[in-house]
Design a protein that fits this description.
Layout lengths: L4 H28 L5 H12 L3 E3 H8 L3 H13 L3 E5 L7 E5 L3 H20 L4 H17 L4 H12 L2
Antiparallel strand pairs: 1-3, 2-3
């Protein structure tokens, strides 16, 4: 028997949250052996995907953490020589974060681990089903007032069809 619309929506929301946690947890578990916590590998991965640099505000927004939390994450990454913070030319109060050369082999490990997990997760899932999920996620992001960057990412996925 099919669920009611409200029950289906509730199940969707619950399952979406569980999938996100389980996915990150699996990547986190595999990267823990290399001394990488979720917050550290997420920061590095985001910087990598933005061309190697971002403002602290952008990074904080993308990661969904408060600015003070991000400062602690960046302190550790900077102490390990993986990132460098620079004062913005046009605003001394603003800092940009840049990947260092030392981060490259770490990023290779992160990307390989994330790709392996994705490959396992999506094995046997038809591309059309994934595209339907992306379309639904895009609608939800729009209704929740998601960031412009996130909306662009979803839009890029749609236009790549």
């Amino acid at each position: 028997m099919a669920q009611s619309s409200a029950a289906t929506q509730e199940s969707f929301g619950t399952l979406l949250g569980q999938v996100a946690r389980l996915w990150r947890s699996e990547v986190d578990r595999r990267l823990a052996a290399f001394g990488l916590t979720e917050s550290r590998w997420l920061a590095l991965l985001h910087l990598s995907r933005t061309g190697g640099s971002a403002s602290q505000r952008e990074l904080s927004e993308w990661m969904g953490v408060q600015a003070t939390t991000l400062v602690h994450i960046l302190d550790g990454l900077e102490a390990d020589g993986l990132v460098e913070r620079r004062t913005a030319n046009n605003d001394r109060r603003s800092k940009s974060v840049h990947l260092s050369r030392k981060a490259r082999p770490v990023l290779v490990r992160i990307e390989a681990t994330a790709a392996a997990v994705r490959s396992e997760i999506f094995a046997g899932v038809p591309q059309s089903d994934l595209q339907t999920c992306l379309d639904v996620f895009g609608q939800i992001v729009g209704r929740l007032g998601g960031t412009a960057r996130l909306a662009r990412l979803v839009g890029e996925q749609r236009s790549a069809r």
